[in-house]
Design brief:
The protein is of the alpha/beta class and 173 residues long. It is built from six helices and eight strands, in the order ααβββαββαβααββ. It has a single domain, classed as Nucleoside Triphosphate Pyrophosphohydrolase (Alpha-Beta Complex), CATH 3.90.79. Strand 7 and strand 8 form a beta hairpin. The N and C termini lie far apart (45 Å).
Length: 173
């Protein structure tokens, strides 16, 4: 049997300094996007200038930034909108791919917009070429398959009033 003083001294010796412990933790990239719909149920996609596939508004979470702050910042940067993200629709764990490490992607609800909302958008010429509403079928032809699956899960989450968990875009809850 180990007495308390022996246990405490061996436990203290085994405890790593905080900096060393933190340095050994896994790192995950994070991103946040916002799902906007129109009254016909189509989703808002943006056409980036720097890659061939379309996206939902959003982007990478920066250091010391929350995912919901990222969503708000990206709406301002990409669309010129000053609005907060709505409720959380999707949390998606994505495996490492290409040169990117594994990550977690959050999708927030942007609500329902009408066509006049697009008129007020201020697209940054260097980043976003255009924005438009698309059906899920149309979106599948414009976005990467992983995002298409995530958007489908987000639409289900809206319809069911829940937050869904996904792995690689596939709903698990």
């Amino acid at each position: 049997m180990v007495n308390a003083s022996e246990f405490n001294s061996s436990a203290v010796a085994a405890v790593l300094p905080v900096e060393q412990y933190v340095a050994g933790l896994a790192r995950k990239r994070m991103a946040a996007g916002v799902l906007f719909r129109d009254t016909a149920g189509r989703v808002l996609l943006v056409e980036p200038s720097y890659k061939p596939n379309w996206e939902i508004p959003g982007g990478a979470v920066e250091a010391d930034e929350s995912p919901w702050a990222t969503a708000t910042r990206e709406l301002a940067e990409e669309l010129g909108w000053d609005r907060s993200a709505g409720r959380l629709l999707v949390v998606d764990h994505v495996r490492p791919q290409d040169s990117r490490p594994e990550g977690v992607v959050f999708v927030f609800d942007g609500g329902v917009l009408d066509e006049t909302a697009l008129v007020g958008m201020v697209l940054p010429e260097a980043e976003i070429l255009s924005a438009a509403f698309h059906t899920l079928a149309e979106a599948r032809n414009k976005v990467k398959p992983l995002l298409a699956d995530r958007v489908a899960a987000a639409l289900e989450a809206v319809e069911q009033g829940v937050t869904v968990l996904c792995e690689q875009g596939q709903r698990i809850t």
